[in-house]
Amino acid sequence: MERIPILKIGDLLLVSIQVDLQDQTVMALEEDLAQKIVSSGARGVIIDITALDIVDSFIGRMLATIASISRVLDAETVVVGMRPAVAITLVELGLSLDGIKTALDVERGMRLLSGRR
Amino acid sequence: MAAEIFGNVVERCRAEEESLLGRWREIVAESLRGRMTGAELDKELRDLLDALLSALATGGGTDLNAEPYAEVRALLVELSRNRAHQGFSPRETAVGVYALKRAIRDTVGAEAGFAALSDVIDELGLLTFEIYTKAREEVITNQAEQLLELATPVVKLWHGVVALPLVGTLDSARAQVVMEKLLQTLVDTGSEHAIIDITGVSAVDTQVAQHLLKTIVAARLMGADCIISGIRPQIAQTIVALGIEFGDIATKATLADALMLAISRSGVDFGTEMAKRGL
């Protein structure tokens, strides 16, 4: 099974989703990320979904879950690079991802997280 | 086989071709009232008559979908398309075909095969109508699309600030286009602030508000911030009366106020900016 790599940059973790998300992959990512946040003591998580062009409610919920897990572990989550079509789909699905921070690209996401402290 | 139902009308038309064509052109020119040059009309009708007579002579029968009529159909398609695009009325277009009946009666005479020939011409007339309508529909669809394009400009007001001035009524189709265009511009220009100016929107009802809210939530998901500006007093009253909640979305009375807010949020220092440009 494919695993999505989690990169550590300073005290941030970068998750760049480049493949089609299967339910299994997503579950593994949640688990890996939780462990990585604890082991690295990261303060922020950036999830880059630039390459994602199809979303469903499952993925929408996954993003919310990951954000909640990170918050419990005292790390803030920023979702970056969402495409217009994806944003429209999520709105139509009624998922406004309340409580998740968003940014246009990875650079702005990093600036947003570092500006918070 | 099918040729005999036309009797010798086809041969006689061939023999009288010039005078028949002359009479036909005369009738058609009368109805068009000089909106086409004689030479243009002459060529159109000559080609059409020639193709029709050849089709009849080679056993076209009364079925217009038959192979011998291919050229006639092609010519008619072109003729009615052109007429539709040039703004001729349906009557003026159809007269072009139906006048042939009168021209034949006047020059060749209503003989044995005339009834069958008349049926064929009726069919041709119907075909003309069909194509004319289709061409007009195409024109209308194109115009609607162009209008949609025209009506949704996204302008850059400042580095990282784009504005979307909305004018007219906002229905679902237009709201969809507006939404996609704004979001795409945010990505293309990397802008973090968008101002939706509704000064030109004639009325705001719950549906329009719904569309605006959706656009703003979608922009937020992408990491951009939206401000609504240009809310006129009456519109503000309507919004409150309808119980529409904009929540934590910033609303400003004028575009100027919205721009100021957007610039201050993006943390621009005017002194440095102007110094950079040597002002």
Automatic annotation (TrEMBL), chain A:
Domain STAS: 2-113
Gene3D superfamilies in the cross-refs: STAS domain (3.30.750.24)
Pfam families attached to this UniProt entry: STAS (PF01740)
Tree of life domain: Bacteria
InterPro entries: Bact_StressResp_Reg, STAS_dom, STAS_dom_sf
PANTHER family: RSBT ANTAGONIST PROTEIN RSBS, RSBT ANTAGONIST PROTEIN RSBS-RELATED
The protein's name in its UniProt record: Anti-sigma factor antagonist
Organism: Acrocarpospora corrugata
Gene name, Swiss-Prot/TrEMBL: rsbS
TrEMBL record, chain B:
Key words, A-Z: Phosphoprotein
Record PROSITE patterns: STAS (PS50801)
Keyword Mitochondrion attributed: no
All residue ranges annotated as the STAS domain in the record: 151-262
Name of protein: STAS domain-containing protein
Organism (species): Acrocarpospora corrugata
